[in-house]
Specification:
By secondary structure, this protein is an alpha/beta fold. The protein is built from 11 helices and 12 strands.
Length: 316
């Protein structure tokens, strides 16, 4: 495992991070005991960065993760969670107000059984872009509330997340320097889309660390395939299916190639998050990351994806 610093935060994290969304049954139902063991396997095998959100499973992911963390020394991991995006009884909600952000941090700490959060993120800021106040509300209200918690030591670092890198850049450009210490972007540094690379210089120039997520593009680059709810176009789905079949013929699972690609080629990306509530899958992905990548196969797969490279979709 390779360890990189997230920007100027001092947090040296494993190049493969554990995304805890699966603990909330986001992709399919899970057994809680398996989820807890998955966290333990991750930490025992070198992963030291864990990311979660109250939105995942509508509090379930934080609750299960909190049970897992009870038995892990606090100095063994960095913990990231989020504010702004929530839900209940199948209904998604968003609230980026200062009051709700502050309340949310304390609620998350209770569920997670910790007395501080290493990194607190404003979750999927593009949804606030469509609400009254737009992204300016993130700058004027959400971030100052989190910075106040940072000054009190309740959280140690502050970041923002989104599918759209343009939104991340806009907030960094309009926020007071030092407010934002890291960004998390997903599905834009993977085999089929490396748009995030175009923004690395900007973030680096502003001393902002970069976290990548979803090396499998939310299932597009996996043998299981994309779930029905995936927002990708039919053409992109078909291209990724062809790439998956090609990798199978080569005896090199596309899951393996995808996670190796996202974690090995750009040291300016501190860590890449993947998610699984299956302990065996966690160990398998760690082993993949620690093996050399077939760069020729990367080129062949990207040729198969062809004109569907960089095809984008909206968040949901």
């Amino acid at each position: 495992m390779i360890y990189n610093e997230i920007g100027k935060t001092g947090m040296r994290v494993s190049n493969l991070g554990f995304g805890a969304s699966s603990l909330g049954g986001v992709f399919h139902s899970i057994r809680e005991d398996d989820g807890i063991r998955a966290v333990h396997v991750a930490v025992d095998n070198g992963i030291n960065f864990i990311d979660v959100s109250p939105y995942y499973g509508y509090l379930m992911a934080e609750t299960v993760l909190g049970k897992a963390l009870k038995d892990i020394p606090r100095n063994k991991y960095y913990l990231s969670t989020k504010v702004g995006r929530y839900g209940k009884d199948g209904v998604n909600t968003w609230d980026y107000s200062a009051k709700r952000a502050t309340e949310s941090v304390y609620e998350s700490m209770e569920r997670l059984n910790v007395d501080y959060i290493d990194l607190i993120n404003v979750h999927d800021i593009e949804f606030q872009a469509a609400l009254p106040g737009g992204l300016q509300k993130i700058v004027d209200e959400t971030l100052p509330a989190l910075v106040e918690l940072r000054e009190k030591g309740i959280v140690h670092h502050v970041g923002i997340t989104d599918l759209q890198p343009e939104n991340l850049r806009w907030v960094v450009e309009h926020a007071e320097k030092g407010m934002v210490e890291s960004i998390l972007n997903f599905c834009h540094y993977s085999l089929n889309d490396t748009l995030l690379a175009d923004y690395l210089g900007f973030f680096e120039m502003n001393d902002i660390g970069v976290i990548n997520a979803s090396p499998f593009s939310m299932g597009l680059l996996s043998r299981r395939g994309a779930p029905d709810w995936h927002p990708a176009t039919w053409a992109l789905r078909e291209a990724c299916k062809k790439a998956t079949a090609y990798c199978e013929q080569k005896g090199y699972p596309i899951d393996k190639l995808a996670i190796q690609f996202s974690t090995s080629l750009n040291p300016r990306i501190a860590t890449t998050l993947f998610s699984s509530a299956n302990p065996d899958n966690v160990l398998k992905n760690i082993q993949y990351v620690n093996e050399p990548m077939d760069e020729q196969l990367v080129s062949e797969v990207q040729q198969i994806i062809g004109d569907q490279m960089f095809v984008r979709w909206k968040n949901s």
